What we know:
Order of helices and strands: HHEEEEHEEHEEHHHHEEEHH
CATH topology of the largest domain: Beta-Lactamase
Strand content: 15-25%
Number of domains: 3
Structural class: alpha+beta
Strand order of the largest sheet: 3-2-1-6-5-4
Oligomer: single chain
Distance between the termini: 72 Å
Amino acid sequence: MNEQERIKDLLSYEILDTSPDEELDELAEIASAICDTPISLITLIDQDRQWFKAIKGLDITETRREYSFCQYALNRPNEVLVVDDPIHDVRFKDNPFVVGEPYIRFYAGAPLKTPQGNVLGTLCVIDNKPREISESQKKALTLLAKKAMDFMNMRKTLAAQSKNLRLGATQLKNLTDQVPGVVYQFRMNAQGDMSFDFLSKGISDLYDNLDPEEVKKDAKLIFDLVHPEDLPALIGKIKDSFQNLTPFYAEYRVMARDGTHKWFVSKSMPEKLDDGSVVWYGIFQDITSRKEYEQTLEQISFDISHVIRRPISSLLGLVALSEQENVSAEQLKEYVRYTKIVADELDLFTRKLHAIYYERKTKG
Length: 364
């Protein structure tokens, strides 16, 4: 036996000094019932002590390792250790639990063997009077010990999975916190109650230093900041997405503390749960710059249409005059001169537009 490897295996179960488990307590009770003993234990042995994970019939939770009977089972992974009368056994005759309470006169322990072949301790039965144990009782102890190890292995697997889930959740949160804007999980039940299950920390940047944890407790903190003119439409879109399970998309204004406002976009995908509530997975983003750009383009388009309306009207008028049948050569020549003036005016305006566009493009 490699004691260092055995201890490492034991510690990997993360079970020492944990609270009682009902399943293991029941196995100890069954062992006492089968063997008709007042005491039964599930023991685990570390470097210095023997600790009891399940206890029946004793008021203590651990002993020093040197006083344990179970230490002698560590090198016997495939057999039940039986001590018929410890008072006549050189290994135990001076043991304080033999010469004193509980006056052990019989011990039988089945090893708790891991998949790696290490023995962590035993499932054992103890009596304060000499007795014998049958082969069927030994087999029962072995099976109960195996059941105990099955439970401990399952507990270890679940603990590892839980740890991986926590690690994965932490990594995911770290990633979402780096995403521009806010990653969120939003929920609404059939009664219309709304809440946020998750918000990345970007919420603090977008919403005047709102605390994500506070918003998760009270979703109203976000809706209170939406521009009053945009709030009814926003709520309406949420309800429509809830009803029809359609993708949610909304652009709306958010009021800042200084009285100004910013434009936000929120988009997400809904999922209906068994309890009738709907959960949306999505993002918030600040689109103020995009909105300002769109408004600038609209203004430029308006200005352009306003500026070119007059020369285009003049050109159309000149064309109509030139198409008259009784136009003289002198009049036609005059119309061409005016047409050139208007064309030059349009050309100058187009060149100025091109210069402004090129300048903005090279700067942007």
